[in-house]
Structure formats: structure tokens, C-alpha cells
Design goal:
The complex is a heterodimer. Chain A is mainly alpha-helical. Chain A has helices at residues 2-28, 34-64. Chain A has one domain (2-64). Chain A is 89% helix and 0% strand. Chain B is mainly α. Helix content of chain B is 63%, strand content 0%. The chains are: A mainly alpha, B mainly alpha.
């Protein structure tokens, strides 16, 4: 069951990252086309995931101290 | 009701995500905001998450600034936020109702509450964007802004 919880958290990480990036892009670039927003969403989601990955690695090593 | 009734639109945007965009004719975008933000909130509620009223008295041992900030962020999703917090408030008045039931000891509670947090926080962005694009510094830039925005990419 604990594996299910972990998987749900991991799935939620990707899902909510995409939600945040898409809503932010669609609300900030109101008059741009769908494909431009899609591209911005993808770029923002990747950047956010990269930052979160760095944070996760930092926390992992901090836990070892 | 005038088209530029800013405060009405902002309050409605708080209650119903995407209302401001629908009010100004951007129906698809409004629908996108509504579906995504309400779905995130309801997913959180399905995971037993809930908006909980925090302890505001700083002398109380349960006082926690983070829970207060979480509460306000979650409440940015207006209507569903009110629906979620209502049973807690009504229970204090002795009225017990079961709407969007939650369980603080459930293993999914934290994750569910985080979904509510994201939904509320994102509706804040949508509200501020409504304010900016239709009533604030970007108001009236519509055609030119669209053209420049397209060329910049």
C-alpha cells in the first residue's frame, strides 16, 4: 500500500506541474494561439520539474548529514 | 450590469474560475480554467482533502502561520472553497452536514489538501490575469498585443 502512496505522490507531481504550467501560461499569454501556449506550457513544466529535481537531490543529501 | 464592472467580475472570478475570461468573450480559455481548476479541487476532495479553518489566535498552542497561509490560498478557489469549509463552520454552530467529507487521519489527506492548495493558488493567478488584461496595465492592448506576441515567438 505504501508503494501506491509513493506512486500517487509521484504521479501528482507530474500532473500538478503540468496544471500549474498550463494555467500560468494560459493566463499570462491571453491572446496567443493554442500551440504557442502549449509550447510555453511544455517549457515551463520542464523548467519546474528540473528545479524540483534539484531540490529533491539537495534534500536527499541533506538527510544524509 | 456594465461590461467594465471590475469588482463584480473579480468577485465572480473568485467564485467561479475563468468567469472573467468568459465575461470578456474568451470562452474556450474560460472553460479550460474552469475544468482544470475545479477538477484539481474535486480530485483533492476525492482524496479526502479539505479546507480546514486554522487557529487564528496566536496565543493558542495550535497557532501555525503556514496553516493560515494554506487556508487563504485554498480559499482562492471561491465557491468550492466555501463548500469545503462550510461543514467545519456549521459544525461549530451545532449543524452537522456531510458535504465533501474529509478525514484528517487518512493517508491521502495531505495529498488531497495539496490539490486544493494548487487549485486555489492557480485561481489567484487567473484572477490577477483577469485584472491585468482587462482592467489593468494590459487593458486595451488586445489586437496589437496579440500581433506582437505572435511575432516575438
Amino acid at each position: 500500500m505504501s508503494h501506491l502512496v509513493g506512486a500517487a505522490y509521484l504521479f501528482s507531481l507530474f500532473l500538478l506541474t503540468f496544471v500549474v504550467a498550463s494555467v500560468y501560461s494560459a493566463s499570462q499569454e491571453v491572446y496567443t494561439s493554442f500551440w504557442q501556449i502549449w509550447r510555453q506550457t511544455f517549457r515551463r513544466a520542464l523548467k519546474l520539474l528540473a528545479v524540483l529535481a534539484v531540490l529533491a537531490i539537495t534534500v536527499y543529501f541533506l538527510c544524509k548529514i | 450590469m456594465g461590461r467594465n464592472n471590475k469588482y463584480f467580475v473579480l468577485v465572480m472570478s473568485w467564485l467561479v474560475p475563468g468567469f472573467g475570461f468568459a465575461w470578456h468573450g474568451l470562452w474556450w480559455r474560460a472553460l479550460f480554467f474552469f475544468v482544470v481548476l475545479e477538477a484539481a479541487f474535486l480530485a483533492g476532495a476525492f482524496l479526502q482533502g479539505s479546507v480546514l479553518v486554522p487557529e487564528f489566535a496566536y496565543t493558542n498552542k495550535d497557532f501555525n502561520l503556514v496553516t493560515i497561509l494554506t487556508f487563504f490560498t485554498q480559499m482562492f478557489n471561491g465557491l468550492l472553497g466555501i463548500v469545503s469549509v462550510a461543514p467545519d463552520l456549521l459544525a461549530r454552530a451545532g449543524i452537522h452536514v456531510r458535504i465533501l467529507p474529509y478525514n484528517e487521519t487518512n493517508q491521502w489527506f495531505d495529498l488531497g489538501s495539496f490539490y486544493l492548495l494548487v487549485s486555489g493558488g492557480m485561481n489567484y493567478f487567473v484572477m490577477m490575469s483577469t485584472c491585468d488584461h482587462f482592467y489593468g496595465r494590459k487593458a486595451g492592448m488586445k489586437p496589437e498585443y496579440a500581433a506582437h506576441g505572435a511575432q516575438k515567438q
